[in-house]
Structures are given as C-alpha cells and as structure tokens.
Amino acid sequence: MQETFKHRHGEWWVLAQMALKARREEQRLCLSHPDYAAYRQRTPAIIPHLPGLDWRTA
Predict the structure, then answer these.
(1) Burial grade of 42 (CB within 10 A; 0-12, 13-18, 19 or more)
(2) What is the C-alpha to C-alpha distance for residues 21 and 54, in angstroms, rounded to an integer?
(3) CB 13, CB 5: distance < 8 Å
C-alpha cells in the first residue's frame, strides 16, 4: 500500500510540474507573439479537457 501511495504521489507531482512549466512558457509566448493568444484558444496545451493542462478550460 505504501508503494502505491508513493507512486500516485509521484504522478501528481509530475503533472503539477508540467502544468506550471507549460503555463510559464505560454505566458512568454503570448508576450512574444501577438497572435498566439488566439491560437491558444483553439488548441489544447497538453491534454484536452483537463483543467490546468488545457488552456481552453482555464
């Protein structure tokens, strides 16, 4: 049971890190490319329909 908790905790940690890194990258892209915000509205970031990993649901 302890191994399962560690494994699941590790998965969520990786997802949280991916979401934070992607959010920073998205902010930088919006600043550098004026049309990027429109592109982002119609394109999922990492995983469609998953809050935090799809900017259309944010």
Answers:
(1) exposed
(2) 13
(3) no
Tell me the average confidence (pLDDT) per consecutive run of 10 residues in the chain, 58 residues long.
Answer: 59 83 88 91 76 69
Q: State the pLDDT at residue 28.
A: 95
Give me the residue label for tokens 């809050």.
Answer: 51
Burial 1-32 (b: 16+ CB within 10 A, else e): eeeeeeeeeeeeeeeeeebeeeeeebeeeeee
DSSP 1-58: -HHHHHHHHHHHHHHHHHHHHHHHHHHHHHHH-TTHHHHHHHS-SSSTT-TTT-GGG-
